[in-house]
Design brief:
globular, alpha/beta, two-stranded antiparallel ribbon, TIM Barrel, 12 helices
Length: about 325
Amino acid sequence: MEFRYLGQSGLKISEITYGNWLTHASQVENDVATQCVRAALDAGISTFDTADAYANTGAETVLGAALAGERRESLEIFTKVYWPTGPAGHNDTGLSRKHVLESIDGSLTRLGTDYVDLYQAHRYDYETPLEETMQAFADVVRQGKALYIGVSEWNAEQIRAGHDLAKQLGVQLISNQPQYSMLWRVIEQEVVPASKQHGLSQIVWSPVAQGVLTGKYKPGAELPAGSRATDEKGGANTIKRFLTDEVLTGVASLEPIAADLGLSMAQLAIAWVLQNDNVASAIIGASRPEQVADNVKAAGVTLPAEVMASIDEALGDLAERDPAKTVSPAERPA
């Protein structure tokens, strides 16, 4: 496993982060989830990402139990706040001071730890003054409940404003967690330059485009049984935009590139995002331990410039690049 600094902080994290969105306490039984976490630890992954909203707090509980007994100082544990939790009452969502300060306590209890290494704003909250949100996050840091703060899916303007307020408050805003893959490149034009300017790194989710870049979905073929595309608990909705014959044909053209490098399609996709020098880590999920073992082999892989060019040529205009696609809900979700 290779490690990279997160933003302009002194914190190092593993190039591969294990995340449990859509899996723990949802698609995967708890014993299998624990096996996946053990596989991640065995592979040298030290960084684990979750959120209070995943499985309505259940994913944090499962992750905390799976990591119990590990040396806390050897781990980097990340969580997030914003989406509705609990009974989804009128203050159970957003980035108000009330919700942030109550949510961190709940997350720490479920994770079985006194602090998280990174506490992240899961989306931008247009209905709470940014000053209120950043003050609450600064207080979480000063209370020792989080070491650093980050954001997720904020656009370039929001990142700049958040950075400036954090600096005034004497805390470090060091990361953004966006979707990023060969097929979803919306951060490259604006978010990455703003992040570099202000000392943030990207911790990217869905580097294999919800599984599409693994090559298991074929143009014109039936969806594989048990795949994310057939999951009615949320997975099918997240992947459907990539399941066109045009996209799947483009993805199939990557198979000889991966084969020539001795990589699986998933390894190629993960290695591709890690070529961006503003990416500190790629988040992988897993429903089976062997998926973890396969994906971690992307760490430390350098793709030659001619390979990167071949990938661009193969996918052509199929990749989404519009920076306006980085959006947070205009109203708090109920």
